[in-house]
Design brief:
The protein is α/β, with parallel strands linked by helices. It has a domain of about 140 residues. Strands 1-5-4-2-3 form a five-stranded mixed beta sheet, with helices on both faces. It has a four-stranded parallel beta sheet with strand order 7-6-8-9, sandwiched between helices. Strand 4, helix 5 and strand 5 form a beta-alpha-beta unit. Helix 1 packs antiparallel against helix 6 and helix 1 runs parallel beside helix 7.
Amino acid sequence: MNNTSTSTNQHKRTFLVPYMGDFSNAASAALRHYGINSYVLPTNTEQAYEFAGKHIYTETCFPLKGVVGDTLSFLHQERERLGKEEVENRYLVAFPTTSGPCRFGKYHEVLRQFLDKEGFENVPVTGPTSETDYTDILGEGFTLRDELSFYRLTLKAVATSDLLDDLVLRYRPYARDPQEVNRRKDEQLEKLENILEDGGELRRLRSWAEETLETFRQFDGENRYPLVLFAGEIYMRKHDPYNGHVIEKLEQKGLETVRTPVMEWIEYVNKINTRQVLRNMKWAVRQADVKRFFRELGRFALYTSNYRYMCRVERKIAEPAHHAVADRHNLPDPETLIHDLESAGEFHGQVTGESPLSIGVARYLMNEDGSNGHEDGSISGMFHIGPFTCMQEGVATAKIESLANQIRQNKPDTVFPVLHGFFGDSPNPNLEAEIAVFAEQCYQKRELQDAKN
């Protein structure tokens, strides 16, 4: 648990969860099952933009601005309503983090400084870290057994919110009224929250999945559109208000999208941790450090158990809707993507973060010419999204373009459209025109694939 406050009785506070798509609501409901009050922060408000701009002057990282602005805006409103002492005793800001120099690894420290400047010195900032496989979520006042139980409930929240998003994106492009699909989605999300708050019984979640499929199946069209992979930095790809609802703009151009899920990151973190533990075990053997060896062995057992459980839960929950979305999900898992990059000498596994995932999936699709079992035999393009000036996705963009040039030299007839979309205070002013060209290229790609088949 990464905690920048020394306060106690954290579980008696209301956890403020920054918005990052439907998963935030699902995770908040899981917290309430354990008796922890939780609330998803309002997002994309004028006041949030003002507070973000007050403390972050440059376009260093739009997701960081989003979290800072949303948090400070809410706390200021509550201080006006309740008073400073009540706010500092009532709330806790909670969100996951990771290691490394980018914003995801520095949220806690940076937000702590801004809270102190705004007079919220006693509002804790805490959350689970990737270094523990995100198993340290609940914090003080709970046993290890509670932590592991909540971790598994969180995995159910991830799997179900991913499935909800997947079904919306599968059927919304063909609806006469896309906003009706969004309204139905909100209804199903509320039902999901109630189930998770009750403990997330697997039988009820599978019934919810069946009901959700039936809810959206009615919107299907006669002919499928070209399928586009929507991948990149997790905050921007999941936070539709902050990316300008760009997926709906793609849909308006006659494209169907599949968004890489939150579970991809959870699985990736698990595999990175497992790889590191195996290295630590080898070093312990070399140094004859028995204590360290058995400590790392225990972590290895935990991570292995976590991986097996996440795979089982994801499979069981998705089973009732599998036939409807199976052709959208035949890409390799994160471990395979990283291994292939390393084997080809294109990237090193020790360079962690989201850029290897973006590079790996782009390389796979370009080499495979998009083939992955979609109705027409292919993924027809990739929309690569990231925050403006993002280090990770900047690296990914450069590497993807380099790989594309290499592949075209060896296979001149290779056609695989990739559109890089970056969002911030100064987003791409030509995005609408670029999407129009991208959509046309995706249709051309599908026609070429049909001809080959």
